[in-house]
Amino acid sequence: MSARPGTPERARERRRENLDIFIGVLGFFTLMIFLATVRSELGGNPSVAQALALAVMVGLLAFTWRMRRRLTGPAPHAGPSARTGPKAGA
What we know:
Elements: H1 8-43, H2 48-72
Helix pairs in contact: 1-2
């Protein structure tokens, strides 16, 4: 269910959607740099620059992921069980 256009809830939802897209793009390029770094390491080529780029990308990905989690708010609390009968096995 989507919020009505122009409401603060819709603006928050759009920010989350934009971050989701950015996380996807960032994740793709992080994976590509990771694979290139592994290939260089296994091939015996110098890969310091690639490893540094990978570290930066992983840091950006982690930071963006945390921003996304902050926008979604805390996980919903499950609360006590709705079961009213005796416990199983009792």
